[in-house]
Amino acid sequence: MPESPRVRGVAPATVVPMILVTGATGTIGSELVRHLAARGEKVRALTRDPRKARMPADVEVVRGDYLEPASLDAAMSEVTAAFLVGLPGPSAQHDGPLVAAARAAGVGRLVKLSAIGTGDPEVGPTGEWHVEGERAVRESGAQWVVLRPSSFASNTLSWAQALRAGEPVPNMSGAGAQGVVDPRDVAEAAAVALLDERRADRTYTLTGPETISVPGQAQVLAGLLGRPVPTRDLTSDEVRAHVLQWWQDEAVADGVAVSSAFVRRGGNAVVTEDVPRLLGRPARTYREWARDHRGAFEAE
Asked: How far is CA 235 from the centre of its chain?
């Protein structure tokens, strides 16, 4: 039988990878979307309210809700790799639907954003928040990567209001130092995990290149701003009250109070080489992050 003219000489179609980013308007998700788009990758961004999302022009924005499985099924359609960001807190019900939708759609690679210390009983309740999600990803049948970042440098953006009012910034962890990590490094590490199959089936703990305490971060900001940045140590009860202002969830507040005490004792003074291992360069320092975001702390 003669060859059909319609297909003669035509190479098989190449499947263009589609990357789904959940939590696309969050701290890491938004950085990841921008980074992937700048690389020319095909990106789909999941958000509960696409009308409010501000994304690069070529990014497909879709609506999805972790509690509405049908919306997740649609978002996962034709996706080759997915970045999974669950809701913070003691409930693990957000991870199950995400992984179930990915499995149903045949997504080949899952990258789960977790947290440093996951599974460590010394961390307290917050150490359990991602345990079930990590397990679901590992047992999904897909290639998987778990990213466990340390405290984000961007957490200090919450100090801006106090600084503008001339008030000391709250210190929940005393002199306890952490391997504070730049969210841009976490996002770039996530991109590598999504695109490079050689990184599959591993857990990476992402930190900055040094440990630094809240007073140390305040000192860095003071040097950049040219004025004092005082801190005020919070008691355990004050930590709970502070967290409740943001989350209004007693279980979250209790968990953060315990984990803050863990950090205060030096329990999270951890530095790894996982960021350099993934990115082929040194991790950014807190000073680099603060220099690039100095304007957020200056008087309006």
From this structure: 28
